[in-house]
């Protein structure tokens, strides 16, 4: 039950005569002196000493035009508060004494266009069209009791529609009238309970915030556990990352000998200060360029959106927004290169990890198809014997915050290959990589279902 639903339940008990104990010695209100129109059947059964009447019979409707100023005339400070039909109790101040409504007794403000209800017991100026002012007739209804009836009736007004139908609805509703003494007891009980509703609302809000954050927080925690070696157990028979690293270096040497890749400059050893967290002994800290190709996409022609690159296009071209929207796997595209576009770019194979380094920095996803992408996206493909980049995609998802911080150190908010190549990245044994990915693929969909 939401806080508003709880409050509505209390108000409903109040207008049904079920919130406080009745007193048989309480006299019913006397309606003999007022002109009554026919009262429709009331939606609740009422105690015997309660009466029903319409709003026009139990209040004085004060015309508001003579007390109204323009919104442009409202001041930030002044002598008299300005009351309108907005959610804000007061929208400012006015110094126009001839526009002041001088109250003899409390009044109810009702927003004909907004259905906002306010209890006012001081002099004020009216700040908008649609403000209805009702002064309760003291020997028939207590002002605060009328206010709470208004609050209960206004709960359904948003469903009515129209710009001026709210008052018409309220005007035709029968108002329940307990004895005056009981009205006062009901008001006292409601106001005794309101602080508890406020406390409940605070707790509810915190719970709602927690619930809204929980799926994403859980996803982040699972990914963090995964790259720290805490999601699945380590198995000695699966070997070590050091052994895997040696196999990757052999593959790199073969590719260099075949002139398929260029020999790179040796990268510096990873220091303890560069390691963001502890990893299992069977794992190894590496730099991504040591274990795979890490390169920017290509879009040589300027401007990048030259129509000549796209007219009658047939080959997929993805951009940073496609990566951001992918939720792990890029399975569709909205733009296609033609042959001229492909010729000035580069084709990346399905399975490539795509990492955005400009605009929305640090978004990661894997290509499900061969595609081109611009130099605002970096592609990563691990060398054999690693056959899948899934582990690296999930790992890089955890680096989004780190990459965002690094991007802020540059003149223009972006990341370059030099920065990426220096990042320390955890490498598990190959079999453990596969088990981590399998576990994540079991658990992450559960997080999505919680949203």
Termini separation (Å)?
20 Å
> Globular, elongated, flat, extended or rod-shaped: what is the shape?
elongated
Strand content: 15-25%
Rg calc: 35 Å
**Classification by helices and strands:** alpha+beta
Largest sheet: 5 strands, mixed
Provide a count of the helices: 13
Any idea what the CATH superfamily of the largest domain is called? DNA methylase specificity domains
CATH fold-level assignment of the largest domain: Adenine-n6-DNA-methyltransferase TaqI, Chain A, domain 2
CATH architecture name of the largest domain: Alpha-Beta Complex
**Strand order, largest beta sheet:** 11-17-15-16-13
pLDDT averaged residue by residue:
90
Number of strands: 18
Q: Runs with pLDDT <50, length 5+?
A: none
**CATH C-level of the largest domain:** Alpha Beta
Q: How many domains, in number, for the residues?
A: 2
Explain what the structure shows.
This protein is an alpha+beta fold and 451 residues long. The protein has two domains: 3-200, Adenine-n6-DNA-methyltransferase TaqI, Chain A, domain 2, CATH 3.90.220.20; 239-429, Adenine-n6-DNA-methyltransferase TaqI, Chain A, domain 2, CATH 3.90.220.20. Helix content is 35%, strand content 16%. It has 13 helices and 18 strands. It has helices spanning 3-16, 55-58, 143-153, 166-171, 180-227, 241-257, 288-291, 320-325, 339-343, 390-397, 400-407, 417-422, 430-449; strands at 51-54, 59-62, 80-83, 92-94, 107-111, 117-120, 125-126, 131-136, 174-177, 284-287, 292-296, 315-317, 329-330, 335-337, 353-356, 364-367, 377-382, 424-427. The chain has a five-stranded mixed β-sheet. The protein has a four-stranded antiparallel β-sheet with strand order 2-8-5-6. Helix 1 (3-16) runs antiparallel to helix 5 and helix 5 (180-227) packs antiparallel against helix 13. It starts with a helix and ends with a helix. The model has no long low-confidence stretch (mean pLDDT 90).
């Amino acid at each position: 039950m939401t806080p508003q639903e709880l409050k509505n339940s209390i108000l409903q008990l109040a207008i049904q005569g079920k919130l406080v104990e009745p007193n048989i010695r309480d006299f019913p209100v006397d309606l003999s002196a007022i002109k009554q129109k026919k009262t429709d059947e009331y939606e609740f059964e009422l105690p015997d000493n309660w009466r029903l009447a319409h709003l026009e019979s139990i209040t004085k409707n004060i015309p508001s035009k003579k007390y109204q100023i323009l919104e442009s005339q409202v001041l930030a400070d002044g002598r008299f508060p300005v009351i309108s039909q907005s959610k804000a109790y007061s929208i400012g101040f006015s110094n126009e004494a001839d526009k002041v409504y001088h109250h003899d007794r409390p009044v109810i403000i009702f927003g004909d266009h907004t259905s906002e209800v306010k209890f006012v017991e001081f002099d004020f100026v009216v700040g908008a069209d649609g403000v209805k002012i009702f002064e309760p007739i003291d020997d028939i209804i207590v002002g605060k009791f009328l206010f709470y009836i208004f609050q209960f009736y206004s709960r359904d007004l948003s469903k009515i529609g129209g710009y001026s139908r709210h008052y018409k609805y309220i005007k035709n509703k029968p108002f329940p009238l307990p004895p005056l003494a009981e009205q006062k007891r009901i008001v006292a009980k409601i106001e005794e309970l309101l602080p508890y509703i406020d406390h409940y609302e605070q707790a509810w809000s915190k719970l709602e915030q927690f619930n809204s954050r929980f799926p994403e927080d859980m996803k982040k925690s699972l990914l963090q556990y995964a790259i720290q070696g805490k999601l699945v157990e380590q198995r000695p028979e699966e070997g070590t990352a050091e052994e895997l690293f040696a196999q990757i270096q052999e593959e790199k040497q073969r590719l260099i000998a075949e002139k398929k890749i260029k020999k790179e400059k040796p990268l510096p050893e990873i220091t303890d200060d560069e390691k963001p967290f502890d990893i299992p002994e069977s794992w190894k800290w590496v730099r991504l360029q040591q274990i795979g190709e890490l390169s920017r996409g290509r879009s040589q022609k300027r401007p990048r959106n030259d129509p000549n690159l796209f007219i009658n296009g047939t080959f997929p071209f993805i951009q940073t927004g496609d990566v951001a929207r992918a939720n792990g796997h890029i399975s569709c595209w909205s733009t296609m290169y033609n042959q001229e576009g492909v010729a000035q770019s580069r084709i990346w194979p399905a399975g490539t990890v795509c990492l955005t380094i400009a605009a929305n920095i640090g978004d990661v996803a894997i290509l499900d198809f061969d595609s081109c992408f611009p130099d605002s996206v970096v592609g990563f493909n691990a060398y054999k014997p690693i056959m899948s980049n899934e582990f690296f995609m999930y790992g890089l998802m955890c680096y989004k915050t780190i990459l965002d911080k690094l991007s802020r150190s540059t003149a223009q908010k972006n990341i370059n290959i030099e920065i990426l190549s220096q990042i320390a990245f955890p490498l598990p044994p190959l079999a453990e990589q596969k088990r981590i990915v399998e576990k994540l693929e079991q658990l992450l969909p559960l997080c999505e279902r919680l949203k």
